[in-house]
Amino acid sequence: MVGLSLSLGSANWREEMWIEIFDKAKKKGKVKDAKLGVHDFQYALINPKDGYGRDTISTNGKYYRYTGSNVTRHLKDAEKDGSIGTNYGGLAFVLE
User: Fold this and answer.
1) How far is CA 76 from the centre of its chain?
2) Which of 12, 21, 74, 89 has its CA 20 to 30 A from that of 4?
């Protein structure tokens, strides 16, 4: 993942944030394997109550802040819109 995160550039720090969240879900054992037709993929099973977030991301020498409450807001907005899942930066997330 390091190569991917370095190639994102400062304009895409939000994608870096979702990579971090996917990695945190993986550490919690909440990344699942799935298949849709002939396509295999993984998705992170996430719950806003799990509190995803950290203080800063460093990308190309610049620092960007995000908090767990910002991440939770994104997840709750998706849920409010009737979505059971979402896709950020090519990573799939399903609300628990």
Assistant:
1) 14
2) 74
Cα–Cα distance, 26 to 87 (Å, whole number): 16
Residue 10, token pair as written in the block: 């400062």
Rounded CA separation 4/19 (Å): 9
CA–CA gap between residue 69 and residue 29 (Å, rounded): 22
CB 9 within 8 A of CB 60: yes
Give dist(CA 60, CA 11) in Å, integer. 10
Closest CA to 88 of 29, 16, 39, 10: 16
pLDDT tens digits, residue range 43-93? Answer: 999 877 776 666 566 666 776 666 666 777 777 787 788 777 777 778 888
Distance CA 72, CA 46 (A): 10
